[in-house]
Amino acid sequence: MFALLAAGRGLGAVTRVPRIGWVVADPVVARQVLNDGAVFTMTGEGGVGHLWTQLFGPEMAEFFGGARHVEIRTHVRDLFTEEAARTLVTRAQGAHHARLAARLRAGETVDVAGAARVLAGRLVADLLGLPSDRPDTVYARLFAAGERLASLALGTTASTHLASGTLERARAVVAEITAGVPDAYRTGGSDTLLGRCRELGLGLPMATGLATLLVIAGTETGASGTSRTVALLHDTGGQHALLADPSLRPDAVREGLRVAAPAPIIGRHVARDTVLAGRAVRAGDRVVLLVRHATNLAGPFDLHRPPPPETRQLWFGAGRHLCLGAAVARHQITAMLETVHADGRPYEITSRTPARNVLVPAYKRLLVRPAERY
Ligand code: HEM
User: Fold this and answer.
1) Rounded distance from Cα 221 to ligand 1 centre (Å)
2) Using the 8-state DSSP alphabet, how is residue 317 labeled?
3) What is the phi/psi pair of residue 281, to 5°?
4) 2-370 belongs to which homologous superfamily?
5) Which residue from 221, 258, 268, 290 has its CB within 8 A of the most atoms of ligand 1, so it is best to mutate?
6) H or E stretch at 354
7) Distance 222 CA to ligand 1 centre (A)
8) Is the CB of 72 under 6 A from ligand 1?
9) Per-residue burial over 139-150, b = 16 or more CB atoms within 10 Å of its CB, e = otherwise
10) What's the Rg (C-alpha) of the chain?
């Protein structure tokens, strides 16, 4: 995956790469693929739905395409509006942020990456209807289990067929992640996703698959986007402009996501012959979209950069699978930016360590404290 992203610079808009398939480096063509869900599908070799279907069975494939997918999205949409996202982030993360801000005000050093992992775990647990009043370690473990499950997908860029040993390991991690699901499914109110699954008449196995999907979709991406945005604002000096004018916060979040692009690659299966940017693409081929490369073509992080129209929100995908949690992710990053600037002073990064063997590039540790001189 990283070799592909690095090679992106030398590739044309659409290039045939041996063993991988069609690699798309251009943002406009990438959006065209995502918007044509009838031809470029998630199920079938090359799409992420193919991985999920091997893990949870053919019923799960229904979530990734067709009428069932539309029905489920429509039924849960109100849990993901701007207002619902703001309420969720405040409820699930507010107390934790208040403690972090107090520690920074007292001049302490905090690990933003570690906090972002716990906060992402708390948020997803709350949204699902799992217990949300446990100690931080419970949510750090949930996050780590999601990370382990996602890392099993490393190496599937050339084929999304999972070996039986990998499937066995994946099922063990799923059991760990979803231990609380049967209870939450039975008792969850309609303000929780598992409660909604029950209301919709989805059986427990499908609800368990969707809960796992949410843990994977919503934890590593959100945590990576949060700590990378904090680091980018520090490294570029953009945090000073943000302190002077807090109304720039939405721009900081958008630029952070554009540059970090926590879902750096998206795969699709080609369901029928078509022509893509002048190239004849055949049914059964795979398409790999280099999202991070495409969103970074506009240039480096710049708080004052007008939103580049061709990459608009591409880091959240597009079309029928456009990220359901986009507003949640934005509010989550906003909350961290408010926290690190809680006392109106800039922060400095005293140490950082990248995470290794993870699907989503992220920091393992990002130590931040109030700047001594500024
Ligand atoms: C910065 C953080 C995030 C990024 C960059 C991101 C990115 C994406 C992308 C690119 C997709 C589409 C994948 C594809 O088309 O193959 C997606 C789908 C999805 N995301 Fe996110 N995501 C983030 C955070 C979240 C959060 C916090 C949640 C939930 C709380 C979430 C829930 C979902 C769900 C449920 C889907 C599947 C939607 C569907 O298939 O209809 N995401 N995300």
Assistant:
1) 8
2) -
3) -110, 135
4) Cytochrome P450 (1.10.630.10)
5) 221
6) strand 347-354
7) 9
8) no
9) bbebbebbbbbb
10) 20
Ligand 1 binding pocket includes 212 (Cβ within 6 Å): no
Q: Give me 313's structure tokens.
A: 């929100």
- Is the C-beta atom of 321 inside 6 A of ligand 1? yes
C-alpha 70/C-alpha 249 separation (Å) is 33
Q: Which amino acid is at 17?
A: V
CB of 37 within 6 A of ligand 1: the answer is no
Count other Cβ atoms within 10 Å, centred on residue 202.
Answer: 23
Residue 284 φ/ψ region, left for φ over 0, alpha for ψ in the -120 to 50 degree band, beta for the rest: left
Would you say the CB of residue 317 lies under 6 angstroms from ligand 1?
A: yes
Q: Where along the chain do its domains lie?
A: 2-370
As given in the structure block, the two tokens for residue 352 are: 């950082």
Q: Which two tokens stand for residue 277?
A: 């940017």
- Which tokens sit at 338? 């408010």
| Helix/strand/coil for 186 | helix
Q: What is the CA angle 188-194-184, rounded to 5? A: 45
Which atom of ligand 1 is closest in space to residue 333's alpha carbon? Answer: 1
Per-residue confidence in pLDDT tens, the chain, 374 aa: 667 667 667 788 899 999 889 999 999 999 999 999 999 999 888 778 888 888 888 888 888 887 889 999 999 999 999 999 999 999 999 999 999 999 999 999 999 999 999 999 999 999 999 998 899 999 999 999 999 998 887 777 667 888 888 999 999 999 999 999 999 999 999 999 999 999 999 999 999 999 999 999 999 999 999 999 999 999 999 999 999 999 999 999 999 999 999 999 999 999 999 999 999 999 999 999 999 999 999 999 999 999 999 998 999 999 999 999 999 999 999 999 999 999 999 999 999 999 998 888 899 999 999 998 66
What are the two backbone dihedrals, phi and then psi, of residue 18, each rounded to the nearest 5 degrees? -55, 140
How many contiguous H segments (helices) and E segments (strands) does the chain have? 17, 10
Q: How many CA atoms lie within 13 A of 18 on its CB side?
A: 0
The phi, psi pair for 110, rounded to 5°, reads -125, 150
